[in-house]
Structure formats: C-alpha cells, structure tokens
Amino acid sequence: MSAGAPLLEVDDLRVSFATEDGLVRAVDGVSFTISPGEVLAIVGESGSGKSVMAMTLMGLTRGPNARIAGRATLGAVELVSASERDLQRIRGASIAMVFQDPMSSLNPVYRIGRQIVEQIRVHDRSVSKQEASARAVELLARVGIPHAERRLQSYPHEFSGGMRQRVMIAMALSCSPRLLIADEPTTALDVTVQAQILEELRVLRQQSDAGIILITHDLAVVADIADRVIVMYAGRVVEHGTLDELFYDPQHPYTWGLLGSITRVDRDTSTMLPAIPGMPPSLLRTPQGCHFRPRCPHAFAKCMDVPELSARAPDAPGHLDRCWLEVEQKRKLRVVGDQIGLASSEPVIS
Amino acid sequence: MSGEDAALRVPASAAETNGTALLEVEHLRVLFPIKQGLLIDRTIGHVHAVDDVSFVLHEGETLGIVGESGCGKTTLIRALVRLTHATAGAIRFRGADITAASQKQLRPVRREMQMVFQDPQASLNPRKRISQILGSPLRLRGVPRAQTEGRARDLLTRVGMYGEHLNRFPHEFSGGQRQRIGIARALAVDPKLILLDEPVSALDVSIQAQVINLLEELQGEFQLSYIFVAHDLSVVRHVSDRIIVMYLGKLMEVSPARELYEKPIHPYTTALLASIPIPDPKENRKRDRPLVGGEPPNPVNPPSGCRFHPRCPRATAICREVEPPLTEYAGGHLAACHHPQNVSAEEIAASRRSAASPLAAGEETPAADPA
C-alpha cells in the first residue's frame, strides 16, 4: 500500500520442532514485509504453519524443542534473536495479538477492567490507575461495547462471544500497537457478529495506521478486508500477491484448488465442486520437491525439485509463486468449467 | 411406518404437497426448564429452544436449516430423531406419529432416519475399530455376521476410503476421514433420511468440498433425503433445494434455495446475507452491506411479537406487539414478517396465512407497505 519503509520485515523464517517422531518443519523459509496501514492476509489450512509463524513473531514458540532461524525485523528490533526482556516490552505494546478463542485468552477470574488496566500499566508505569481506567472505558466504547463504564466491572463469562472478541481487540489496541496479529479472529463468531468485528478492524486500520496480519482459512473474509495475500501450504509460502492478483490471476495450483473448493452465497456453484483430492502431508514426512506435488493433477518430473518463490508473470513483478509451470500454461490449466479450480484427477486418499 | 396411517393423514399445508411428504413437523416446541433451589427444584423459567415450528420434508429433497448459534437448529433436528424430547407438537415420519413413540417403536424408524454429527471425533467411539463401528449397525439391520466385514468394506470404499482402514481406530484418521466414517455408519442401515448437523464446519476448506461432493453423490445413488443444518449460508445454498431460516427458535423464512438469496423477504435473511463476505474482491466492493447491530437476545426471555424486532431496521409498533404469522407468497416462499421486502403489492395481495404459522401468531397477513 504505502511506499514508505516497511513496518515488519520477515526474512527466511524457519521454525521446526523436535518431537519423538522426528523433526516437524512447521515454517519452512517464509519471507514477507508489511507496511503501515496494510492488511496482509495469511491463508492456509490447518497445519500449514500460519499460526506457528505468527506466534514466532511474538516469541511464543520458544522452547527447548524449538529451532528458530531467520530474521524478523520490527523497526530497530530483531524479533527472532531478541531477549525475553525485550520481547516483553514489545508484546502488547508494539505488536498485539488477537486469538481465535476469546474465552481462553481472557482470565476468567478477573474483571475485564482490571485486565485492560493491567496491560496498560505494565507498559507504562507513569499512567495512574484512574487514567488507565478512563482509557479502558474509551477503548471499550471504541470497539462498540455499550455501557463501557459499567462493563469494566464484568467478568469474561458475562460477555457473549462477539463481545469478548471486542474486549480482546480493545486490549490489543490499549497500547496503540504498530502491528496487530489477528489469528482467526472471527472463526468462532456468528456471521452477523463477524461482519461487525471485520468492520472494527477496518476502522482501526484507517484510524491508527497500524499494520494488520490476518490469519485465516476463510477466503471470503480475505476478499473482504485484505490488501495483500500470502497462501501457505505445508510450511511454505506457495503464492504471494495483491488481493486482486490472487483472486483473478492465481498462479499456484493449490490456490486454484482453494478457490474452487469454496461455495458462494451470491451465485449457484456447479454441482460438483472442483475440490482438491487427498489431504495435506504430515509435516514429519513432507514430500520431496514441491509439497503440493502428490495432490496436484498438473505435476510433472520437474516438480521433484523445490521451485523458488519468485515472480513469473512479466506483467506482475510483485506477484510471487512456487510452481514450475509456465504462466500461459497455468492460465489455461486453472479454468475448470466456468470457474477457477483444480482439474479433477484420481482422488488420492491415504 | 404403517401404510394405513399415511392414508389417513391430512397434509399440513396444501401448497406443500408436491412430492411425497417424508417427514412432517407440526407446531413442534422444545423448551428446556431452568431449575433452581436446594432441596426442591423449582422451575423458574424456560429456554425457548424450538418454539412452534412446522414444516414438511419431501422425499429426495435436501432441506437446509440456517441460523446463528442459539437459534435452535441443532435442538430441532435432535428432537426430530428423538434424541431430545419434544415439549409439544407432532413429528410424523411417513405419516406415523413418532412424537411419543417408545424406544421399541422407534427402532424401525431409526433404521430409516440417521444422523451425522458436527464433531466426527466425538461421535466415534475411540475404543472401537472401524470394523466394529460399521459392523454393529449392519448387524442390527440383519446382515449375517459372516457378511458384515465385506459390507463394511464396501461402505468404506463408497465413502472414498480403503478396505484396510477397517482395522484401525478413529484416532488414526484425520477430521475429514472421520467424517467420512460417520457418513458410512449412517449409510450402513440403508436409511432414507440423513440429518446432517454442521457436517463440514469442523473441516478445512479443501476437505469440506470433498465431503460436500461425496454427500451429493450419495444422495443420487441411494435416493436420500437430507436435512442439512449449518451456519454457513454459502454451503447451505450449494447443497439445498429448500432452506429454512431460524432465529431464536422460530421460523423466519422458508424458501426455495435460489429464491432465498435472490429475493429474501425477511429482513433477518437480508441481514444474514449482507453479513457474509463474498470470495470475490470486486463483487465485494460493489455490494451495499447494511450491517445489523447487536447480537441474538437470550432465549430465556425472548422479545415479544416478532423475535427479531429489537435488531430489525424495519420494525414498527406492530412488530413489538403481534407475532407475525408465516405468510405464504408465490412459489411456496414463506416468511414471518409484518413488513416484507422484495415483494410487490400484487404478491402481498395474493399472499395468505400459512397453516404452518405458530399458534400464537396474529391473524393478519402483511398489508402492502406505503413505502
């Protein structure tokens, strides 16, 4: 979006975990940048590494079994190698996170007000309790919670799911973060409430110029709010482009499969969805070469080598993908009937 | 079950008789008591989970039921298979009243009416092998022991899995595969009707599409009827012939699938549709999406009159006072609203009060709005 310096620069981030069964490569060389005021969506199915990637940025995946390599630079701070003390200063202040399940991210035995005040005062000791309380009321009102002053006295269980998610967003905003990471923020919510929360995110990005990383599996939500999209598959980025590039000129067969798999509320979809056969691989035993190869009907000999993530279409230098096929070839192959999808092949179910 | 019962039955609504009725639901209510007290439990109120719901399911039809959490859609279908007791009303399967049938009387009905649950992990016994999970319904159906394994193997391959999976335990499978096993188990008794409670909402997008495709194939092959409960309107549109929109235990709108999306009559349906983003950025930007504020109220003390009135942009005094009857418009499109949208004055004039209306609903069908 904006041409200024990027807010966050992630370079070749790798996260793996040593388990009893072997090494799990959860994030396998992810690079991207995000600018202020930009909404970057990270799309992928369960096990694609999208959440691990986000948690690593917050320093939440560190542990004796985790191996983390690469760089993630937020302003002057390198997050991967930052000390735990530095991270504590950053968490909640420069980077805030909103999780999928608002119930388990709020402490059930403390009143909402106390939890927000605590977060404000941890990062700025000079703020008095009264000031922090006033700020909390302001924040709750800003995210659309009625009777904010009274609601400060409520416990998390007294709120509905949508209201709890608003509280989470209010807490995330309490220190005016430069980067907000929202991990499936609307997945647990009803559609009418989801629409309200997405609207809050839109308002937030207009008002504060914060960058937002939105992690989701829902392409409709992506189409609604994102500026740029990263598609992840089995730990790797397979495609990276602007919203319109990804939806109207998708370059990776996995993206075609995702687009073909979704039903649409505004029009009739063909009786049989051009679905992706098979299942994502286990991260313990990822296939050689392109990770999507075993499920891809267009795979050929060259797919045994891992394709680089690079721009392949000459007219779109920012549109990156990891597929060996020629651009023109892809533009033909991805059309199934009258829509984009993955051409059918023998279903592989292991 | 018996044929003479079916012959005696009068259909619930004259306009709903195209096709043979498989399942008829009349004025069904499911109320859960709220109890309080230390020694003596006093009932201090009720959760109005399903509150006077009537509809008919025809043979070979897929009926979608949509609504937000707490609207009573799951309670409704659990009551249909008698997993939850109905407080009042009638459920008829092939004309036979099963509302108060004993477990023994229900046995032949259950053979024809199966259920697939949302969470495939929780609905398969973790200590049983797949052969046992599929074997017991087969034996209940009277398949000799010697043949059960072969039949189980056939079922498993039919849902896109392999015969060697028979000896495995549920935990050895992914969510999508478990849901396939759940579907195979439902198919084992050769049912006519399968009730699907959010069958794909726990699955990843690509696996969702596989399971939806599988359900479509099976429907044609085994002449199944489905009741498909989901909160995802786009999935429901894809699979359903007709759709019921529920809100706080009441039917808001019943409509042929396509018409519901092209011509929603109830403002709640409009609100639901507007809330859903479309996976198409250009279309999304073009859309005018009025957001509905608030959240569904508490079903213990539902609002008076129309239950949607506190959130409804079109609500007037009558909506607070009189519960709107289900009004039948052309093409079997029903809506419970005093201020219907997307219908012309002629269509309103030709409309009539449906027999499926709640008993407490007002008599007056909507008049053409001056606006």
Summarize the structure.
With 350 residues, chain A is an alpha/beta fold. Chain A has helices at 50-57, 84-90, 102-105, 112-123, 129-142, 148-151, 161-173, 191-208, 219-225, 243-248, 253-261, 327-333; strands at 8-19, 22-34, 39-43, 66-74, 77-78, 95-98, 179-183, 211-216, 228-233, 236-242, 310-311, 320-321, 335-336, 339-340.
Looking at this protein, list some descriptive labels:
heterodimer; A: 350 residues; alpha/beta; Rossmann fold; 2 domains; eight-stranded mixed beta sheet; four-stranded antiparallel beta sheet; 12 helices; globular; disordered C terminus; B: 371 residues; nine-stranded mixed beta sheet; 32% helix; 22% strand; disordered N terminus
Structure overview:
The complex is a heterodimer of chains A (350) and B (371). Chain A is of the alpha/beta class and 350 residues long. Chain A folds into two domains: 8-226, P-loop containing nucleotide triphosphate hydrolases (Rossmann fold); 255-340, no CATH class. Chain A is 31% helix and 22% strand. Chain A is built from twelve helices and 14 strands. Chain A has an eight-stranded mixed sheet with strand order 6-7-8-3-9-10-12-11, sandwiched between helices. A four-stranded antiparallel sheet of chain A has the order 2-1-4-5, with helices on one face. In chain A, a hairpin with a 2-residue loop joins strand 4 (66-74) and strand 5 (77-78). In chain A, helix 4 (112-123) crosses helix 5 and helix 5 (129-142) crosses helix 7 (161-173). Chain A is globular. Chain B is of the alpha/beta class and 371 residues long. Chain B has helices spanning 3-8, 73-80, 103-112, 130-140, 145-158, 175-187, 205-222, 233-239, 257-262, 267-275, 281-286, 317-321, 345-350; strands at 21-36, 42-58, 62-66, 88-93, 96-97, 113-116, 193-197, 225-230, 242-247, 250-256, 327-329, 333-335, 352-353. Chain B has a nine-stranded mixed sheet, sandwiched between helices. Chain B is globular. The N and C termini of chain B lie far apart (50 Å).
